Amino acid sequence: MTIIGSIQYLARSVVFGGIILTATMGSAYAAQASADHDLDYWQALSHTHYIEEGSKGPILYDFFDPNCPYCHQIYTWLQNPIDNGQLRVRFIVVGFLTHSSKGKASAILAAANPLTALKQAEMGFTMTKAGPEGGIDPASGAVIAKMQDRLHFNKSRLQGKEFEIQGTPVASVPFLVYRNGKTIHYIFGLPDNAQWRDLLNAS
Q1: How would you class 80 by CB atoms within 10 Å of its CB: exposed for 0-12, middle for 13-18, buried for 19 or more?
Q2: DSSP secondary structure string, 15-72?
Q3: 138: which DSSP letter?
Q4: Where do the domains of the chain lie?
Q5: Strands 19-24 and 27-32: what pairing?
Q6: In whole angstroms, what is the distance from residue 103 CA to residue 84 CA?
Q7: Is the peptide bond prior to 174 cis by the omega test (within 30 degrees of 0)?
Q8: Residue 183 — φ and ψ, nearest 5°?
Q9: Hey, which of 9, 40, 75, 90 would disulfide with 25, CB 3.0 to 4.6 Å?
């Protein structure tokens, strides 16, 4: 991949119940979409087990964990552009951040209506003494076992790209991917104002 842009900001870390959560503020990368592997990656994302919200506008892929407070913040930000037809967001659920993440991610994916389950998780999101909690009950062990392959596939798309770009095998969320013209953009963490404007003007 040819990196044509890179902006780094200080990471913000928060400790919840002994768990360290880090959101890199606006680590952004832009890759020439003409590179075969970037086009392949963009196409591969369409085969992830995503949940789409919105019916108009360009596509944004959003990797998220149901217990991630920064993912929740981005979800909240995205509601207006989704409602206004500016974006179609494909939420790619993963479950690794906390002990209940996999169960909650499985509950969302296995729901009769995954978008309704996603909204339930986000609308009921809370910060507890034990840590951040998405507002959906974790799935049973049997359901988690059934969803294991889907969650593994989703995480592999996240972890593989993060390793390629940043050289780290540790997956992190949120991770946003969108296309603007002939360029594919990757944002790790919370987008800054300039990145947010560019994201809303994606094509």
Answers
A1: exposed
A2: EETTEEEEEETTEEEEEETTSHHHHHHHHHHTTS-EEEE-SSS-EEEEEE-TT-HHHH
A3: P
A4: 35-200
A5: unpaired
A6: 32
A7: yes
A8: -120, 135
A9: 9
Q: Calculate the alpha carbon distances from 118 to 51, 53, 198 in Å.
A: 8, 10, 26
* Residue owning tokens 């920064």: 70
SS3 162: helix
pLDDT 10s digit of each residue in the chain, 203 long?
Answer: 333 333 233 334 344 344 434 444 456 555 444 455 677 788 899 999 999 999 999 999 999 999 999 999 999 999 999 999 999 999 999 999 999 999 999 999 999 999 999 999 999 999 988 889 999 999 999 999 999 999 999 999 998 888 888 777 778 899 999 988 777 889 989 998 988 988 888 87
**Distance between CA atoms of 63 and 113, rounded to whole angstroms?**
19
| Buried/exposed 44-77: b ≥16 CB within 10 Å, e otherwise | ebeebbbbebbeebbbbbbbbbbbbbbbbebbee
191, 199 contact by CB (below 8 A): yes
- Kindly report the pTM of this predicted structure: 0.83
Distance CA 185, CA 62 (A): 12
**Token pair in block for residue 176:** 């946003």
pLDDT of residue 50: 97
